[in-house]
Amino acid sequence: MKAVRVHAFGGPEVLKLEEVDDPIPGPGEVVIDVRAAGINPADTYMRSGTYAIVPKLPYIPGGDAGGVVSAIGAGVNEVSVGDQVIVGMGLSFDLTGCYAEKAKRRASEVLPMPPGMSFAAAATFGVPYTTAHYALFERGNARAGETVFIHGASGSVGTSAIQLAKRAGLKVIGSGGSAEGLALIATQGADHAVDHSKRGYLDEVKQMTRGKGPELILEMLANVNLAADMDLVAKYGRIIVIGNRGEITINPRIAMMKELDLRGIALWNARPEQIKPMMNDILTGVADGSVRPVIGREMRLADAASAHLTVLEPGAYGKIVLVP
User: Fold this and answer.
1) I want to staple 110 with a disulfide (CB 3.0 to 4.6 A). Which of 1, 85, 176, 225 is the partner?
2) Which CATH code fits 2-124+293-323?
3) Alpha helix positions (H), the chain
4) Could you say which DSSP state residue 113 is in?
5) What are 103's strand-pairing partners?
6) How far is 274 from 134, CA to CA, in rounded Å?
7) What's the CA gap between 84 and 89, in Å, rounded?
8) Angstrom distance (rounded) from CA 162 to CA 172
9) How many angstroms separate the CA atoms of 241 and 262, rounded?
């Protein structure tokens, strides 16, 4: 099969499309023909060798995919050959193996795709939707009637969070950096969209919350925005750090005076018993139409290096997937 492999940590140029042996399922395992593999920012950090998870070299990146079961090992009863399934980091806690024509997982770590779902859409559930759900509810304690500000809402986690928050009865304000991104935020159901490339955009958020600030902020780029988030958020508010690419200077006195909660998340810290009800709730949203994955771009497996550049560029728009 063809697969993208990393033999040395570094920039996007270390992603090499190669011919490798097909995976063979062992007891309790399945092999999936990958029809779409999700690109996540975490994939780029792992590739650089600076991530909290450092895989053994060489490795095949990617923890999210949609595909078709092509082989099963002994003792597998959960799925059959030909089943369309979701593969996700949130299900297996594995961020490797999916940038390939075939991937291997435990049978207990895949879920059946809902009827009518595309393979590209299936590749959004392992990280983006589970991350958004974990941030909003398990870590953010989001409650109906509150206001959540999603700081960087046009990417895959952001659009997922908009949908889940609206479904739960929150007022949603999202920021984006392009006209296209702002339009997407609006179409996903946000009550307001603000342009974070313009001076004074946080004043707009303050006005929309009648001067008190949002009770909850989801932050995708904390090294740029955390200090401003602390000024903006309501007294007793919560800020959930989902993404960060460096250091920032903050004034802890603001946290003291407002009695703020600054909370980080890393999806692999979620316990398996937390993931199952999260996934059940997300897929219930698929069934009732409130959860609608946004695919921003489909790229060839051979274009993995370009995809790693694109996923980090300003002006994020939905999910990027690789199509073998």
Assistant:
1) 85
2) 3.90.180.10
3) 41-48, 89-92, 119-122, 130-133, 156-167, 179-187, 201-208, 222-232, 252-258, 272-288, 304-310
4) P
5) 32
6) 9
7) 17
8) 7
9) 8
- What φ, ψ does residue 39 adopt, rounded to 5°? -100, 125
Q: Do domains 2-124+293-323 and 128-267 have the same CATH topology?
A: no
- Cα 270 to its chain centre, rounded Å, is 14
pLDDT digit string (tens) for the chain, length 324 residues = 999 999 999 999 999 999 999 999 999 999 999 999 999 999 999 999 988 889 999 999 999 999 999 999 999 999 999 999 999 988 888 999 999 999 999 999 999 999 999 999 999 998 999 999 999 999 999 999 999 999 999 999 999 999 999 999 999 999 999 999 999 999 999 999 999 999 999 999 999 999 999 999 999 999 999 999 999 999 999 999 999 989 999 999 999 999 999 999 999 898 888 898 999 999 999 999 999 999 999 999 999 999 999 999 887 788 999 999
Q: Which two tokens stand for residue 149?
A: 């500000």
Domain locations along the chain: 2-124+293-323, 128-267
User: What top-level class would CATH report for the domain 128-267?
Assistant: alpha beta
CA distances from 272 to 51, 92, 185, 278 (A): 22, 9, 31, 10
**Collapsed DSSP state (helix, strand, coil) of residue 118:** coil
Residue 277 phi/psi, 5-degree rounding, is: -65, -30
Both structure tokens of 286 = 């698929």
